[in-house]
Amino acid sequence: MTVSSAPGKVYLFGEHAVVYGEPAVPCAIERRATVSVEVRDDSRVRVTAPDLSLDGFTVEYGGDGDGRPDVNVAKGLVEAGIAYVDAAVEQARDAADAPDAGFDVTVESAIPLGAGLGSSAAVVVAGIDAATRELGHPLSPEELAERAYRAEYDVQDGQASRADTFCCAVGGAVRVEGDDCRRIDAPNLPFVVGFDGGAGDTGKLVAGVRELREEYGFAADTVESIGDLVRHGESVLADADPAAEPTDELLAELGRLMDFDHGLLEALGVSSRTLDNMVWAAREAGAHGAKLTGAGGGGCIVALDETPETETALRYTAECQDVFRAELAPDGVRVEE
Ligand code: PMV
Questions:
Q1: Does ligand 1 come within 6 angstroms of the Cβ of 202?
Q2: b or e along 44-67 (b: 16 or more beta carbons within 10 Å of the residue's beta carbon)?
Q3: CA–CA separation, 261 vs 81, rounded Å?
Q4: What does the DSSP 8-state code read for residue 293?
Q5: SS3 category, 331
Q6: What is the pLDDT of residue 53?
């Protein structure tokens, strides 16, 4: 059996605009999805994913016909988030040139689903890593990122950037602009994450921004403004010492940009009342800045605060179901003992 894990991520800034070729800076966080894979001696796939659905969901398919889940099962898979596991299995089979390989797969994830923390990317990256290792065909983090991107692209009908999958595969802070993905230096920023218990529909939210952009020139300008803001943020990060504690000036400047970014995302219609309320609770508690992370519509916000004030305030905010501090994860995908 091979066990691999991959981290979730927050967007420091740049989500949505990254879909249109603007740069984005996601940062991997120490909340991981763990995928255990064991090769079977038939071509079936058995997936047990207690954290991807309601109660200890297990699904088994393949080994007859074309080896794919049938349509009804496939619908259930999409709803359960297991479509991502299936896409990862397909990528692993393809990478190892083993189209008939069967697997027992178990997924455990500490990353809330569909909440802007890259849960699906982490599952796909860790799944492809564990399955290709089981087949004796390990891939580099860059190859894993590419395969994971293709898997997400298929499941999300083409609505995916490379940001999540690259960040989960390589870890740390990264910069993504179109096909150009690279790690960048960043100090360990004091992220606080607030979760409203809900999830956003990434496909719908991305489509909504696309419609706005097509209808209004100023919405297209708003997307470009996010790109300008990210470029500014990158220069601020580049001037910081990655090995030192972040200075007050750095946190103040990054926080200001996060606030600005949230305002632009709100203008693009991807925030929600619960996300806004959490963002305001964080700001009022003294956070340097706060914004939604990921697709929006519901899910998580990320704030910058080195003191306990934001965590405490969010704990007493009605809309906030969970709050936690998130360290920058220097490791991307890795094998677990
Ligand atoms: O909600 P998440 O973590 O899947 O992030 C979506 C980010 C978008 O920019 C809206 C879409 C994308 O694929 O980059």
A1: yes
A2: ebbbbbebbbeeebebebbeeeeb
A3: 29
A4: -
A5: coil
A6: 53
> Ligand 1 centroid to 66 CA: how many Å?
32
Q: Which residues contact 256 (CB under 8 A, 6 or more apart)?
A: 288, 289
Mark the ranges of the chain whose per-residue pLDDT is less than 50: 54-56, 65, 70-72
Q: Is the CB of 295 under 6 A from ligand 1?
A: yes
Is 180 marked active-site? no
Question: What is the per-residue pLDDT for 71?
Answer: 45
CA of 38 to the centre of ligand 1 (A): 30
pLDDT (tens digit, 9 = 90+) per residue, 270-307?
A: 999 999 999 999 999 999 999 999 999 999 999 999 99
DSSP string, 139-187: --HHHHHHHHHHHHHHHTTT---SHHHHHHHH-SEEEEETTEEEEE---
Give the global pTM: 0.91
Per-residue CA distances from 177 to 17, 122, 245, 302 (Å): 10, 20, 27, 22
Give span(s): CATH 3.30.230.10, the chain. 2-184
Q: Which helix (H) or strand (E) holds 103?
A: strand 103-109
Atom number, ligand 1, closest to the C-alpha of residue 117: 3
- The CATH superfamily assigned to 191-326 is GHMP kinase, C-terminal domain (3.30.70.890)
Question: If you measure from the C-alpha of residue 162 to the centroid of ligand 1, how many angstroms do you get, rounded to a whole number?
Answer: 9
Q: Residue with the nearest Cα to atom 13 of ligand 1? A: 160
List, by residue range, all CATH 3.30.70.890 domains of the chain. Answer: 191-326
Count CB neighbours of 330 within 10 A. 13
Of 51, 86, 129, 164, which is the active-site residue? Answer: 164
Instruction: State the CATH class of domain 2-184.
Output: alpha beta
CA 118/CA 265 separation, integer angstroms: 18
- Determine phi and psi for 11, rounding to 5 degrees: -90, 115
